[in-house]
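Below is one protein, fold included:
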Amino acid sequence: MSKGSALVSILFAFFCGLVIGNITTTGKGGQEATAEKVEGAAAAGADAKQDDGIERYQVPVTAAQPVKGPADALVTIVAVSDFQCPFCSRVEPTITQLMQDYKGKLRVVWRNNPLPFHQNAMPAAEASMEAMAQGGSDKFWQMHDKLFANQQAIERTNLETYATELGLDLTKFKAALDSHAHQAKIQADQALATRIGARGTPAFFINGRFLSGAQPVERFKEVIDDELKRADKLTKSGVSKAQIYATLTKNGLTAAKAEAPAKPEAPRRQPDPKAVYKVPVGTSPAKGPADALVTIVEFSDFQCPFCSRVEATVKQVVDTYGKDVRVVFKQNPLPFHQNAGPAAEFSMAANDEGKFWQAHEKLFANQQALERANLETYAKDLGLNVAKVKAALDSNKHKVQVDADQALARGLGAAGTPSFFINGRSLRGAQPFEAFKAVIDEELAKAKQLVAAGTPKGQLYAKIIENGASEPKFIDAPNAAAPAAAPAEPDADKVYQIAPAAKAPVKGNPNAKVVIQQFSDFQCPFCSRVEPTVKQIIDTYGAKVKVIWRNYPLPFHQNAMPAAEASIEVFEQGGSEKFWRFHEKLFANQQALTRADLEKYAEEVGGINMAKFKAALDSNKNKAAAQADINAVEKSGARIGTPSFFINGKLLQGAQPFEAFKAAIDKAVAEAK
């Protein structure tokens, strides 16, 4: 449509009384179709082609979605969210503030996108939609608030409690959850989210403009204020307030650009559920008979909420199967859980005195209080020799054993927690009892056959795992495979094609065959924590490696993008040498990254033209360069947090210990020869 045709189209639509029904591309089911017509009717009399250079998406707003705010609001935010997602929870106060600041001008519409690796997200979404079915949007938002306020307690029993507290008909509520009455509608939301590129959560469409992640309130306001100006122009040209959203989004994109034209997706590799792994018991703490028919090796982390949650299931397994099962505990304290490592060592000190399982229960029961002082208190509570426990913690007596458990977990592809190996077969995540039962029953039958054939029970586990795999085994996922209850571990051998930066800070040998691209955020505590490990890598491997810095400022870290822009400007003016000095100052002062701080650190580095530095920050001159680093990851298809490292294209995520890097780098060195 040519520019200037808006008025002609408005008059034409008005006199012809056209009802435009192409706001949505799904239209499945009576409700969607009816709501589609309502939205189309609102659009009648308005031409949606806005040649303003703004990329927008068609995101239907129908009677089927929960809404708060006036129907004729000038700005509509469609929130695509997940009740178990911590980032979704984090952004909720921002949405509340926006509703207050733009009262009467803003409408928020909810779309569900429960991620497959959030075990309770789908049931929570179903509960929220049943609340809406019984009490409209008001009851939905009340349930919404309860779910986010109690994000760590959204199991089925909790959902029923919240329904009772909200005055819902509990019989109807239970029946809806039992029958999955709302699941089709939720899956339609998920399909829409996938189609328009909102794969992660939270995601927002502000009058159709895509904004991803738990962004700061200023970023929302930047878009909303711009949209209010555009809406004001439209109302002055004769478009009614009720028609604004439909007008702006009518001719928006119906699919994310990266997905159009759609290409068949190659089947993704997933762990082989039938593979048997060689998982030695060693001297790890165990309960149950040594000659049990089924041995369950658990890799866990005392600070991990999912590890805590699955403990009740493990107890149920033991209670159900009795002497037929043995549970072996191995340590895998994740690097971003600050107190998990000391807690693991404490449990092993308790094991020295024969009280591992008592310590295990005490630690999980007090998961939010695992500081050193707490551990010493627990030692006293458990009747341990407190002096010996303190000495063990001071000397890291058990760190070698903990590190060995972690190395074993990494080698088996079980980097996340909790992870289980049932007679060598992998089961990942805080799975329900039924998932354990299915594997255990199969393994019991096999074990009984081996015993009947003459294998002594005491040699059974060794026999089963003797030819087991020592590294991850994958199979191609079928095209029509249902989503897994928990995410597959990332394929450690996948090579991502990360577009190189035009210019980037480098340390190490510029001609090294092993290239480590470090994607980091100056405000991220885990990025700070991994810096000594990066130094150890350079010191250990010397000319064999080079490290390239790439910026990945997370949207919910308010000062991360300005810090990234400042570091780029220092690099522009002073090269890698000045950059790394500035980089060290930023990480050393991670809690002080305001504009004034950035200027102070640049002056302290020396040799920086401060007038140019300030001008660069004022104009956001380097923001595009930082965004280019983020875009390079997105285009590669990788999904990362910070810090993340691509070692010759292979992804290693998180503030991992040096041993994890060593294994990956040694492999890269061997492959590069």
User: Anything to note?
Assistant: The first strand starts at residue 67 and ends at 68.
